[in-house]
Structures
1.
Amino acid sequence: MGILSAKLSAVKPSQTKAMTALAASMRAEGKTIITLSQGEPDFKTPDHISRAAIKAIQDGHTKYTAVAGIAPLREAIVRKFQRENGLNFTPDQITVGCGAKQLLFNALVASLDEGDEVIFPTPCWVSYPEMIKLAGGVPVAVETDVKDGFIMQPDALRAAISPKTKWLMLNSPSNPTGAVYSRQNLEELAVILRDYPNIWVLSDDIYEHLVYGETEFCTMVEAAPDLASRTLTVNGVSKSYAMTGWRVGYAGGPIELIKAMNTVQGQSTSHTCSIAQYAALEALDGDQSFIREFRDAFKSRRDLVVGMLNNIPGLKCDIPQGAFYVFVDCQGILGSLTPSGQHLETDMDFAMYLMEEAGVAVVPGSGFLADGFIRISYAASEEELKKACNAIADAASKLSRA
Ligand code: PMP
Ligand code: GLU
């Protein structure tokens, strides 16, 4: 009998992490690899935030904190939700954890019984199905269509609901497609949810500030305030504030769920780093002007990458409306032959070919439950992005039809 539980045997390692680790190990061997496989802003954390962390150390804030996070941070999060989303929480309806990732995990562990179902649109972030399985639940993937801009359609939601459905998980702007749900999209989903009062909504808003098109960011409770009593709104500082390594995410929701999430966290990680919590406090309360600068930079990088990729025969992508990923259809490439005689049959084969031949790390679409695509993160400098796209074009031009 092996050491692994049956539950863990069904869980796949994160593909974003796996491709990034492979890129790092190839670099350690002396190869030049451009890493576009991990959703991580290349910007430095703004100085005033870093200074707040240094001050926290100097002031001796280096001890355990409350499980849900320090009170001033929870108060700042209450203000953030009020100011930016029009949501009203009290500090005891807020909890802070080691990144939005842990909040999602805590919520699922706190709420799922064996066999409970969680609906989410695909393409989806690599971690959703695996976290659901780890928590004992059953992932219910609802495919979205590129012609709908990868937005989940109300009928598709209704068709996926069963007596076992516990959650609908939504992520807008979406990783990996960049789809942004409009207020109207959310209202239409809310109409269905009103027929099923036992289904909760998990709104993953981690890319909130990274919206480039006409559709404004909207979160479920803003669109449907009557769903507040069964919605968990998750957010964090990783993406908008260039703070991925600090590991601070937060959530606001009904007190019963927040308390249960605190129990999960109190029996596992306790809380996120005390110093990082002071940094997050400064991030939320301090100067916000750099967010617009980051966003403008991401937007011009997006346009650059989409333009260059669409010039490569066999690849095509629409202009994503948010986040910092391009989800590229590579079905026109699949089936071709590499110079060494290998058939590129899957998006994984193509991603590995790009790693080896172009020196560019991307993530295969299958990791996001969407075969025939690759995901490219454009959270890198323009110079690197140009180099990467040219290298991809070069590698693609060496392929021949089988
Ligand atoms: N949700 C989505 C959709 C993401 O892409 C990420 C990125 N890691 C997260 C949540 C979690 O972010 P973090 O844990 O760094 O806050
Ligand atoms: N969410 C980012 C990504 O999808 C960071 C890596 C991860 O946590 O998966 O690349």
Note: The chain has two domains: 6-44+290-395, 60-288.
2.
Amino acid sequence: MTEAIGRIGVLGGGQLAWMMAQAAPRLGLELWVQAPSEADPAVALAAGRILAPPEDAVATAQLAQHCQVITFENEFVHLEALRNLEAQGVCFRPQLASLAPLLDKYTQRCFLRDLGLPVPEFRLLTATEQPQSYPVVLKACRGGYDGLGTRILHTPAALDQIRQEWAGRPAVVEAFVTYERELAILAARDVAGQIVHYPLVETQQEDQVCRRVLVPAAVPDEVTLQAEAMATTLLLALDYVGLLAIEFFLTPEGKLLVNEIAPRTHNSGHYTLDACVTSQFEQHLRATAGRPLGPPDLQVPAAVMVNLLGYETGERDYQATLKALADLPHSHVYWYGKNQARPGRKMGHVTVCLEQFDPTLAWAQARQIEALWVQ
Ligand code: ADP
């Protein structure tokens, strides 16, 4: 019999690792993190830490000496360097071959297209590329998150300017999709090959950053089935172990286009902490530890999640605001403990579980939370 996994290492120490670190003891697991700074949210909660950026593979070799398996909080890893460790017997979940096609936006798009999953029209940006029509969306192949690295461009002059600014930085240029809504789904696969799907959610972005999420999405069942089928195709094609998120555009014709795959826990799934039987963090840890998955079911009729985004730079006392948010009925406030705010930075989130599924009321609730947050 192989030894049961009791200690997991995570590359990254932000809020996703912070929420994983809270889930770990409930499963009898110890979580170690590899994070650049003592001040990173997960460091104080982790059972152990290696202070280094997630892409530092020498530090990961040290982490591997303490942990039986290593997983990921984000995409900013140095795959080539980690491959040496994998070859020496370090266990990564998901395995590195599952991550390889996903870490770069261009290779990810090619992988999805070749798998037959619908994606927006895309090309690699070249020095001479001149799109036939505008707007277009330009995306840096690596290093983008929360819309940093994604630009919507309306004119050839704007494209030329970015080409100069990003000199030599590989990027994808893709068609601007006039979508009806943005949707997302979480799915997980365990070592034995069992797959679970979480409910399809609607996400709302502003300036390319997720602001709020409604679960379940108000869409016909056939759209949910499409999303689940695509998630299954992807998990099987990647031979993936762990949890991943898929972001979609829903077209006016009711078809889904895949926008992006996040091979990890995801902001669109924070509602699972309070609204589902098994949170995304517990689920990912279960799969990573080689345990069977838990039920993904919603335990409430609906829920809405709002990101608390920094709107100013510096330090401030948020206690009164957080109390007002916590006093809302059925609300759950998460504050990531980041020591510095800056505009657009994810400082925390609030989930409100709802007694009925009514999208109009749910979005109104989200607006109320946002009004309390910025007042
Ligand atoms: P990130 O990796 O930073 O999350 P995404 O590629 O997910 O960037 O894009 C962020 C947001 O930008 C999307 O959620 C969507 O609102 C908008 N966006 C991205 N690509 C397109 C597109 N092709 N057409 C229209 N909007 C887009």
Note: The mean pLDDT is 95.
